[in-house]
Amino acid sequence: MEVLAELRVPELNETSVATFEVTVSDGTNESKQSLDITFTDIHQEPRFDAEPALLDTLSFDDPVEAVFVDNRISFSMSGANAAFVATELPTGEKLRIQQLGLSPADELGIVNPASILEDPTKPASFASAHVMGASQYYWSSFAVLEEATNRLKVFVQYDAEETLENVLSLPVKSPCASYRITKPFNNWNGPMLIGSREGGFSLIDTKNGYQGSPPEVPLYRTFGTVESFCAIYAAENPLQGQTYNSYDPTMITLPDVVALNSDTNEIYHYKQSVYADPYTSEYGAPEITELDLQTSESLQLVASTRIGRFSDFGTGMALVFTDGKHNGTHRLVIIGTNVNREIIQGTYNWSKGVPADVLLDDLNGDNFPEIVVITETSPDAVVFTAQPDAAIIPPEPNGQWGFLPLLGPSYIDIGLGAVSAVPSIRNALGPDLLLIADKEGKEIRAYATGN
């Protein structure tokens, strides 16, 4: 059984026959039995117009839990200073964070050993942490959401060669989702939304942390009580159209918040009801809309990501669901608001591959964003392409995308076993890099994109 547990089927690009042979012996007598098994090529059609090319693979001794970048938001592909990998420590309880680098020869490696961190407690997720206000004084920063310890932690590097320091640690009930607000709301400094698995959501703002001084936390408020909000975003702009109708930004100090209650598959839309400063403004009762999964089957939320324009303002959210079966039922749901601040949504599907993550990227460098669903049980990632926003006439050339409807699906090859990924990172030394984490294979793969 131990041998079978370690057996991995090789990747194929054409239908092939493999022979498995088992020999049983009692020390005297011996018996052999063989079996031919036909493996069918499972690459799906149609293919996306730019297939990423594998540049390098970096192996680890322990399972890879996640790959992530600092300060990465939306569709801004130059927004990352550093990439990190989280691997599981042998105890199975903690994670080791290491910084990734790419040599001029396109070889992946661990850089800056001083930054190795053995801190986060599983289960944990990672998020943008551009919450210190004066982030130009930090080389790198990111947040860790620790569900097991009910805590949000922020780590920063003050210089590229320095250690990661824990500059913020807040008690947050079962944190499972985050969103960094990018649109300025009066005197706010990029607040974070933290969704809880069983406690609504928190709104956290920090003062400027100048030149090494730790950030302060002047605002920390919680809304909701028992809702499971593991997908959340601030509706800073409409998903379709440029601006909201009858919306006075000088009055708004609390942004509209849209969250999925995964216990009930309902969309909660919070709007400000009391107009004052951020400390005393209030949300009204949420407007609740049923999520349109277009199936009666029970599906589980797997992952979500923000949808944003080049300006990085939040315009929507992409969510992926599955029944956990390779040839099962899988859904991508796009959620946003229209110019009247009403919920709109669109639902898409594909036939093969259990989803593990979802990204917003530009795989072929044509400035048209793609929503990419990373699948664990198929070598193919699923690609849906955005179109110019029909509500903007004429369409703007630099990033006004409607996302409803999407084109697709089409497919790209990223190898089997993918559990986590980060969108293409701008690489001054060569092609843009799509990083894929393979937990079972204990490796990170780097693919060239932007062709």
Write up this protein.
- There is one protein chain.
- The chain is mostly beta strands and 451 residues long.
- The chain has a single domain (2-449), classed as YVTN repeat-like/Quinoprotein amine dehydrogenase (Methylamine Dehydrogenase, Chain H, 7 Propeller), CATH 2.130.10.
- It has one helix and 33 strands.
- The strands form nine sheets. Strands 4, 5, 6, 7 and 8 form a five-stranded antiparallel beta sheet that branches. A four-stranded antiparallel beta sheet has the order 3-33-32-31, with no helix packed on it.
- Strand 18 and strand 19 form a beta hairpin.
- Residues 1-5, 72-79, 131-136, 208-212 and 393-399 have low confidence and may be disordered.
Short description:
It contains one helix and 33 strands.
Features:
451 residues, mainly beta, Methylamine Dehydrogenase, Chain H, 5-stranded antiparallel β-sheet, 4-stranded antiparallel β-sheet, 33 strands, 1% helix, globular, disordered N terminus
Please state roughly what percent of the residues sit in beta strands, choosing from under 5%, 5-15%, 15-25%, 25-35%, 35-45% or over 45%.
over 45%
Largest sheet: 5 strands, antiparallel
Amino- and carboxy-terminal Cα gap: 44 Å
Tell me what the CATH architecture is. Answer: 7 Propeller
What is the domain total for the residues? 1
Determine Rg (CA atoms, Å): 23 Å
Number of helices: 1
**Which percent bin holds the helix content?**
under 10%
- Provide the structure class: mainly beta
Could you name the CATH topology? Methylamine Dehydrogenase, Chain H
Which stretches are poorly predicted, pLDDT < 50 over at least 5 residues?
Answer: 1-5, 72-79, 131-136, 208-212, 393-399
Oligomer: single chain
Tally the beta strands.
Answer: 33
User: How confident overall, as mean pLDDT?
Assistant: 81
